[in-house]
Amino acid sequence: MKKLLTIAAAFLCWACYAQQNFNTLSAKEKKEGWKLLFDGSNTKGWHTFNTTAAGEAWKVSDGDLHLDVESKTGRGDLTTDNAYSNFDLKLEWKVSPNGNSGIIFYSQEGEQYKNSYVTGPEMQVLDNDGHPDGKIIKHRAGDLYDLIKSSKETPKPVGEWNQVEIIADNGNLSLFLNGEKTVSTIMWDDNWKQLIAGSKFKDMPDFGKFKSGKIVLQDHGDAVYFRNIKIKVL
Question: pTM value?
């Protein structure tokens, strides 16, 4: 009995430690140059696409940032205030049953751009088994949306947290899902242009052309949750 109580106490201590370390940086990460994009308490550093502030549909609670799909106002893609060129981005996401969202990067704002995805490539966030996009090649979780299919599929069951890393360094792009590399490609070369020409983005003249831009969390109409969002400029 004493042994069981000791194990239980150890588990609770670990759980408390893990909870306290959400949305924080270790001393090592700080030394390496990592910066938090979300501190677990507010939406500072973010705004809704093509506006100046974060819409009220994006809520912060229990240390995560999530889209309240019941909200009638303040909807839209959540966008970083800052633009990034070469970067290493890490975050965690989970999605509701049948849910769809995405992580868009190199996105541009302005009157000429009505949506974040007309310029920025996207790493897909999806309930593969529940959402219709799960039946479409290059539309599943971890894919470079509509451009490159994951080399392996590693998403966790719907409702569980998934770990993402996106590394964009002088045109070298790598996507990781739960510690496994899912996509590796070179941006802006002839092959990149061919990928775009064969995709749904072929008629969007500025898609995938920019070498600096905003990071976007997509409002696709479904409940989605994010936490531990951090970035290192390369």
Answer: 0.91
